[in-house]
Amino acid sequence: MALYRHGILGAVVVAAVTWAAPVAADEPQPVTVAHIRLAGSFDEAPVTSDPIFGLGAENFKTKLDRIRKAQSDPAVKALYLQLDGLDIGWGKLDELRRAVTDVRAAGKKTVAYLDNGSTMDYLMALACDEVCMPESGWLLLTGLRGEMLFFKDLLDKIGVRADMLQMGDFKGAAEPFTRSSMSPQLRQQLEGLFDDYFEKGMVEAIVQGRSGKGLTAAKARELIDRGPYTARAAVAAGLIDRIAYADQLPELFKSALKAESVKIVRNYARAKSEELDLSNPFAIFKLLAPPKPVTSKKPKIAVIYAVGAIVTGRGVENPLLGSMVGSTTLIEAIRQAEEDATVKAIVLRVDSPGGSALASDLIWNELNRCRKPVVASMSDVAASGGYYISMAARKIFAEPGTLTGSIGVVGGKLVTRGLEDKLGLKTEVISRGANANILAADAPFSDSERQAMTALMKDVYEQFLDKALAGRKKAGKTMTRAELEALAGGRVWTGRQAKANGLIDELGTLGDAVAAAKELAGIEKTAELEILELPKARTFLDALIESRADAEAPSLGWQRTLGGTLPELAEAWQATHGLLRLRGEPVWALLPYRLKVR
Question: Is residue 521 within 8 Å of 372, Cβ to Cβ?
Answer without folding.
Answer: yes
